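ARCHIVE CARD
CATEGORY: sequence design from structure
SOURCE FIELD: tokenized fold
FIELD CONTENT:
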């Protein structure tokens, strides 16, 4: 359960404020006390949330009333709602080794697992679970926290001017208006600095064709790239990444996490996800060191399309490599010198076997083995049944397929067939421990389980060409 703004029209906010303005202080204090008694133990920093929601509404209608702190807080309570983030579904997990591997027994590994949670109105957010895979290969999930922390956009987010200009050019937005604005900001600038530069430069391009649209696009791009901070003292399992802006207003879908090892041995965690606004999708990228501060950026370029982009866990030949399904049907491989820009893609494979004949996609980032890149896939067959398969790709040339399972590795059977979305098993990432492949996977979107596969046997099957 999280709290989020209870959005009203301007006229309804004014009416609410007028009614609250007539309320006496005794009633105001009594009502606020009832709210605190009923909800104070359910959420962290509830008063701060009420204050934030009041400020948003007051700014929206230009409210200038001289209210007490209690009355402002009560107004914020009226403008706040609880939201059950996973009341409809909890599914499409991804898993990586946790950044903190301290205080473990011999042969144990701590993991971090992300899941897509769906609540009222089919709005998706990202939640996290932590746990341990022990030396005897059992899985222990940590207890759920008592309270959740909805992510907040950090107010001091900043942008690199060169990267920002390149993205605008990719979108077909360039010329004098862009130049006039960006020459007024430093090499690394904030949204506030960009907004000020727009206002300063506006007189210079009044009357220029499409200038208003260009300015709106520049501000929108800035608002789509941000960072979020995990609350002080909070654990990852308390964090809920809820839609932050208009482009993801209808959901954040299918985070694919990967532990990325740079050529100098440094570690960075990336994750690709899909932002959805009800009309179109946008591929997005998160990056972080230890998940205390998470940077969020749009993925750009002609090959940054559709859903399901999965980054390889290291560079190949000096380039970043991505597996994707840019046409909604086939698997592609892209290479780039920048993790933010993807211009070209080559088709890796088309649907081949009956269980994947409708479409094929990846099930998270590939896993490096001595024999090749192990890539889990998903395929769609008759009755829109989703199953999970596997491929083995050449380590030096991932466009070369060594083996491709002819039959699914995991298929929906028994109780796994029935749920919010029937006949679907799906994962967004797996990890290896003790020569076993741990695959967390969604079961009809109603629940998530973990399957354990002997990695050696799977590789042998794939080296044999994927024989049934």
């Amino acid at each position: 359960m999280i709290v989020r703004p209870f959005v009203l029209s301007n006229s309804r906010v004014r009416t609410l404020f007028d009614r609250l303005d007539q309320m006496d202080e005794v009633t105001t204090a009594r009502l606020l006390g009832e709210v605190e008694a009923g909800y104070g133990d359910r959420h962290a920093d509830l008063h701060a949330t009420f204050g934030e929601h009041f400020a948003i509404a007051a700014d929206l209608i230009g409210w200038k009333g001289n209210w007490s702190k209690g009355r402002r807080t009560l107004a914020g309570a009226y403008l706040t709602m609880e939201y059950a983030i996973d009341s409809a579904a909890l599914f499409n997990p991804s898993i990586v080794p946790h950044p903190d591997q301290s205080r473990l027994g011999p042969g144990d590994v701590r993991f971090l697992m992300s899941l897509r949670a769906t609540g009222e109105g089919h709005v998706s957010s990202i939640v996290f679970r932590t746990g341990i895979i022990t030396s005897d290969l059992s899985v222990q999930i940590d207890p759920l926290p008592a309270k959740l922390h909805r992510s907040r956009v950090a107010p001091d987010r900043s942008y690199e001017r060169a990267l920002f200009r390149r993205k605008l050019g990719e979108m077909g937005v360039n010329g004098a208006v862009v130049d006039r604005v960006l020459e007024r900001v430093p090499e690394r600038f904030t949204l506030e600095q960009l907004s000020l530069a727009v206002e300063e430069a506006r007189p210079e391009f009044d009357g220029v064709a499409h200038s208003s649209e260009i300015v709106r696009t520049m501000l929108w791009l800035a608002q789509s790239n941000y960072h979020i901070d995990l609350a002080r003292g909070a654990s990852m399992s308390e964090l809920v990444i809820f839609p932050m802006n208009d482009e993801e207003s209808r959901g954040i879908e299918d985070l694919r996490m990967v532990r990325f090892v740079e050529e100098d041995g440094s570690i960075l965690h990336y994750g690709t996800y899909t932002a959805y606004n009800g009309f179109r999708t946008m591929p997005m990228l998160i990056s972080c060191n230890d998940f205390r501060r998470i940077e969020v950026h749009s993925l750009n370029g002609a090959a940054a399309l559709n859903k399901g982009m999965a980054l390889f866990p290291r560079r190949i030949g000096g380039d970043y490599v991505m597996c994707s399904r840019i046409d909604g049907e086939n698997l592609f491989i892209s290479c780039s010198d920048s993790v933010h820009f993807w211009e070209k893609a080559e088709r890796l494979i088309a649907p081949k076997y009956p269980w994947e004949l409708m479409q094929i996609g990846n099930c998270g980032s590939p896993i490096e083995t001595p024999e090749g890149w192990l890539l889990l896939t998903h395929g769609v067959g008759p009755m829109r049944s989703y199953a999970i398969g596997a491929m083995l790709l050449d380590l030096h040339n991932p466009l070369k397929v060594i083996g491709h399972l002819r039959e699914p590795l995991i298929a929906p059977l028994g109780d796994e067939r029935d749920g919010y979305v029937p006949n679907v098993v799906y994962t967004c990432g797996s990890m290896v421990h003790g020569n076993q492949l741990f695959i967390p996977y969604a079961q009809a979107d109603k629940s998530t389980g973990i399957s354990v596969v002997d990695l050696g046997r799977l590789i042998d099957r794939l080296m044999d060409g994927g024989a049934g």
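CARD ANNOTATION: The first helix runs from residue 10 to 21. The two ends are 45 Å apart (CA to CA).
SHELF: design records, drawer C
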